[in-house]
Each structure stands twice: as C-alpha cells, then as structure tokens.
Amino acid sequence: MGGIDLDRCFSLLSEPDQAEILSFISDSDYPVKKEWKTRAGTDIVETLKRGVFMNWFCLIGIVIVIVGFALKWNSILVILLAAAATALVSGMSPVALLETIGSTFVANRNMAIFIIVMLVTGTLERNGLREAAAALIGKFKGATSGMVIGIYGVMRAIFAAFNVGFGGVAGFVRPVIMPMAEGAITAKGHKPNEDHMEELKGMASGMENITWFFGQVLFVGGSGALLVQGTLEGLGIHVELIDLALIEIPVCVIATVLAIIYYYVKDRRLYKKYYKDELGEEGLK
Predict the structure, then answer these.
(1) Residue 157 and residue 160: Cα distance in Å, rounded?
(2) Model's pTM, two decimal places?
(3) Distance from chain centroid for Cα 145
(4) Ordered DSSP codes for 153-220
C-alpha cells in the first residue's frame, strides 16, 4: 500500500464510516490482509454499537432543553447549555463551537433586530407608554376590550399588506394594546379581573398572528408570497405575484372579519362571566 498506515487512516474516520468499511470488507472477496478480515468479523458489531450510541447521545441537547423549560430555567442559559453539550458529545472543539455560533449569528443578524425593539419598548414603557395608552382608550366610554382588539386587527391587516410590522406581541401588543384593553375595562368602572386579562392576552396575540399571517401575503415580493409562488412553480404551475395578491385579498378580509366577530363575542361572554356581580340584571342582557 505504499507505506500508508491503514490503522491510522481508519482511526480518523467517523464511527458510521468505520462501520460501513468493516461491513464492506466482511461481505466482499477483496484481497485484503487476514488481520483486517478478522477485525471486520469481530469489530463490526462493536463499531456499529458505538456509532448508534454516539448518534443517540448527540440528542442530549434536546433533553436539556425539555428539562430546562419544564423547570422554568433561564431560556438563553438552557439553549447555550444544550448547544455546548451537543457539541461536546459530537466531538466538536470549543473553538469550532464558538466559530459556528459566530458565523450563524452574522449570517442571521437581521433576526437580532427584536433586541432593539425590546429596548425601545422598555424605554417607552418606563416613560409612561402604558399609562398613555390606557388614558387614550379611557376617553371612549363605549369602547370594550373586544372592540380594541378588533380595531387593532383591522389596522394590523392593512399595514401587513404593505409589509409593515409593529414589533409583534412583545413590541406592540403587550405595551400598547393590552393597556388599552385594560383601560376599556377600567373606563366602565370595573377592576380588571386577572383571569380576564389572561384571556385578553391570548385574544390579542391570536389577532396579531391571524392578521399578519394572511396580510403579509398581500405584499408583492414578500416572503410569504415568494414561498407560495416557489411551491407552485415546483408543481409546474406558474403564477404571478400580483395574481396571488389579488386572490389573497378576499381570504385576508374573511379571516380578519371572522376573527373580529369571534373575539368580540368571546369578550362579551367573558365580561358577563367575570363582572356578573357588578353588571346587574340590566348589564347581563
């Protein structure tokens, strides 16, 4: 073999590759050294076992994530521990792990914009954003929490059609819409019920997801429209982006209207449920 150290070369291979080579040697009539034939017959099972064990052990990161989230540990810490553990059992060096994290962050740095949004939102909240939002809705005596969420849904769908975002749940719903919904309850002379507020959080978040999901496809050249176009193109169906937008308009309108009606009716039921004693007989009608 020209002085090539086969044992050395073999040791540099991964466990699955070693198992594949040993399996080939064991089953073939290739003229190889007798000790390699013997090794193939005796070591292949152990090599396969080690390969399978290592492949399963690489999933330890998933276990760490599940346990960490179940115990309500710090999310970032859990993810970093899971990444480090997975890299360790996979044979990745600390330097390679840091390089991977760094290159991935640089390639997806636009995703870090939410950090800026959170900082800006936190600063605005500290300077009275929540109080201002609650005071604004408090001026409209007939407003209800369901109406606030419905109006936000219409506004969100319109701006989504132009691919304009407000920061999502963390950047807009929590600091602006929720105080306005709470202000609508206070304006009627009721103390906001904690369970009712939790329901409203889910309703406002649901409205955000529905309107953004169906509204963003209306933007010609948006990621959603391009995804649909690419999928249809792969099936042999050619469509223009403007045609997709025109077809999506009634879908978005119907989805938004149905969501508004559903959340408005649900809010009325929740209002009667949590403020029954304060409303009286007339208020329950």
Answers:
(1) 5
(2) 0.55
(3) 27
(4) HHHHHHHHTTT----HIIIIIIIIIHHHHHHHHHHTT-PPPHHHHHHHHHHHHHHHHHHHHHHGGGST
